[in-house]
Predict the 3D structure of the following.
Amino acid sequence: MPRAIISPSVLASDFGQLTAECKRMIKGGAEWLHMDVMDGHFVPNITMGAPILSCVSKSVPGIFMDCHMMVAEPEKWVNDIADAGGSLYTFHHEATSDPLSLIDAIHERKMKAGVAISPDTPSTAITDEVAEAADMLLVMTVYPGRGGQKFIDRCVPKVTELRARFPDKDIEVDGGVGPKTIGVCADAGSNVIVAGTAIFGAENPEQVIAMLKSTVND
Ligand code: DX5
Ligand code: ZN
């Protein structure tokens, strides 16, 4: 299995101190920062877009921005997110009819490409061709749209299925992940762990990051 990566979701951070929050997480052991971009169409909420990501990448040199694009037209934002310093551009399978061309466009802008599936989308929706072209697969363990939701257990078998098909691929889980749910995620084979509330809500985020990481590595 590929190496463990912890990606705190800044959705649960103090947006007024966004760059400081990112630095705090990196100091605490986080490799990536998970940036939830919501457009008010694919999901009801609006969060942040390229202008804010651009400020973050300028203020936090070397940051790896794991951009989770919960947007209706993911083709539309590739250039803006690349210009803003995005490192990984994960689009939703449900939001595009041509994932292969989109992956090519993302790679052309020198970003890694991820494909996300929402709770009602089966793992088989991701074809071998798409998975092989992508750098990462994201299995949502809540319905996209907001932080702080309860982990949906029935999503876990999809991680197991994808790990069996793609032993070396990065597989991310996102939504309701924390010390109580990391065990099943790690057992199923996910290696990229997103956690918002569990990390930012903790008294000692560093400890939570270390705990999540060691569970995946076990
Ligand atoms: C949900 C977002 C998640 C969310 C995770 O739409 O994609 O990244 O912020 O937050 P927690 O860990 O609080 O469920
Ligand atoms: Zn997310």
